[in-house]
Design brief:
By secondary structure, the protein is an alpha/beta fold. It contains 13 helices and 17 strands. The chain has one domain: Alkaline Phosphatase, subunit A, CATH 3.40.720.
Length: 485
């Protein structure tokens, strides 16, 4: 007998139980259950666990790769102006602050107060930098968390931690966990979509990122993020090959699925089931994605909200509008990556350019969701992976400076889905160096996002390598319930 046929015909104890309990019938039942869950019925996971009454059905997460300076955007420290160029070297040594290799060799660590003006906005009186005039207009819609902190001091581990809950590679991303826990609201689009927005500053340091930030890790592959391209077709091979009709394509796919089912029945590899599902999703996306990407029907009043760049593919404003369109069509989690926020030098020039890229687009997104009645069940999160130092990296002048990485505190904002608008949560010391009240770790942020979606971070888990794996890991994490109305 052919040894390959012998291997395929062999039935191990594990395969016997898998076929008995999780065969094709069970997979079909799970699919039906997932659709029921995706319809918005609160209270269960796909595994049947009772959960929390959700405030949100979906999430838009805006990732500012490179880490914007909290000192120049949301964390106002007016008392620092009189301490310009004060050498912090002795103070830093006593504080135990970790230094990156980029500043550890500096002879002096001059204090660099922001050169940008801050003013209070909205009924809440939130302090917002002049760099973000459109964001300032919606101060009463935002909850600014000024007491975020992280364990990582360099970009790669910090981005992995905030996107996957771990500094180690191979873990599922936030969006993959959401998809796994809640299922899909739309059978014609992925439950998790990634958008890459361009940035306009030609000088900014651009951090490299990879698909592990939106991957499925050890979860079934169907839960991984699908990245839509900003140029050309949103998805490669979206169109059928010339000369092959949709009917022929359908018959080819049916034949391929039959072969995959035979392989599954012989070997019992669950990834084969994922492959079948992904082929089917790709076929349906050939019809759904062109309609999604066609923004010609968007009214001029909507484009005016997001700004003139909303008509240019790949810009942040265009990506923000695309995120709203994805939300309308039932996508659970949209992550927009905007790079170029790593200002180690020339911060005044480059940070101003970066803020201009995203400012009106964010305003348009929040107002658009609000006008459509979607903000009440859509959670929007905006922030980077860590903060920036109060001391200057390199040379310092009255008009120019740079800042190094700072994991001890940084700012981000959240809006929608029951989050208290007009709230400033947490405080830092007079130099935005340490947190003095209400610290929020990355794990707390993840637990809070899951809570908004009706998921208990301690119960959303999967068995892998003998452990119950979770987005928030094994260390303590708390839901920041104070930010919810």
């Amino acid at each position: 007998m052919n040894p390959i046929e012998q291997y395929n015909a062999a039935l191990t104890r594990r395969q016997f139980f898998r076929k008995s309990g999780t065969g094709l019938g069970a997979a079909a039942l799970a699919s039906l259950m997932e659709r029921a869950i995706g319809s918005g019925d609160a209270g269960t996971l796909s595994g049947g666990l009772p959960q929390i009454l959700p405030k949100a059905k979906r999430v838009i997460y805006i990732s500012l790769i490179g880490a914007p300076s909290q000192l120049d955007t949301f964390d106002y420290k007016p008392g620092l102006q009189k301490r310009f160029k004060e050498n912090l070297k002795d103070w830093l040594e006593k504080s135990g602050q970790r230094l990156t290799g980029m500043t550890s060799g500096q002879a002096a660590f001059p204090l660099a107060p922001t050169i940008f003006k801050f003013s209070q906005h909205g009924q809440c009186g939130a302090w917002v930098s002049e760099l973000l005039p459109w964001t300032a207009k919606m101060a009463d819609d935002l909850c600014v968390i000024r007491s975020m902190h992280t364990d990582a001091i360099n970009h790669e581990p910090a981005n992995q931690l905030i996107c996957t809950g771990s500094m180690q590679s191979g873990k599922p991303s936030m969006g993959a966990w959401m998809s796994y826990g809640l299922g899909s609201l739309n059978q014609d689009l992925p439950s998790f979509v990634v958008l890459h927005a361009t940035h306009s500053s030609p000088y900014s340091d651009v951090q490299a990122i990879s698909s592990r930030l939106w991957g499925a890790g050890y979860l079934p592959g169907k839960h991984g993020g699908v990245a839509l391209r900003s140029l050309g077709d949103p998805v490669l091979f979206l169109k059928d090959t010339p000369g092959i009709s949709r009917e022929v394509r359908r018959r080819m796919l049916d034949g391929l699925n039959d072969l995959n089912r035979q392989s599954y029945e012989a070997v019992g590899d669950p990834e084969t089931q994922t492959r079948i599902q992904q082929y089917e999703m790709a076929y349906r996306m050939q019809a759904s994605v062109p309609e999604l990407a066609d923004m010609s029907g968007e009214p001029e009043a909507v484009h005016a909200l997001y700004g003139p760049e909303s008509k240019t593919r790949g810009t942040f404003a265009n990506s923000a509008m695309m995120a709203r369109r994805l939300m309308e069509r039932g996508v659970r989690f949209v992550q927009i990556f905007h790079r170029g926020w790593d200002q180690h030098s020339n911060l005044p020039r480059d940070l101003a350019s970066q803020c201009k890229d995203v400012d009106q687009g964010c305003y348009g997104l929040i107002q658009d969701l609000k006008l459509r009645g979607m903000l009440e069940d859509t959670l929007v999160v905006f922030g980077g992976e860590f903060g920036r130092t109060i001391y200057c990296q390199g040379g310092l002048s009255e008009t120019n400076y740079g800042r190094d990485h700072h994991p001890r505190c940084f700012s981000l904002w959240m809006a929608g889905a029951g989050v208290k608008g007009g709230l400033s949560y947490g405080e830092t010391d007079e130099m935005s160096f340490n947190i003095t009240r209400d610290p929020v770790h990355i794990r707390d942020l993840h637990a809070t996002i899951l809570h908004a979606l009706g998921l208990d971070h301690e119960r959303l888990s999967i068995k892998f390598q003998g452990l119950d794996q979770r987005l928030t890991g094994v260390e303590p994490a708390r839901v920041v319930k104070e930010i919810f109305a």
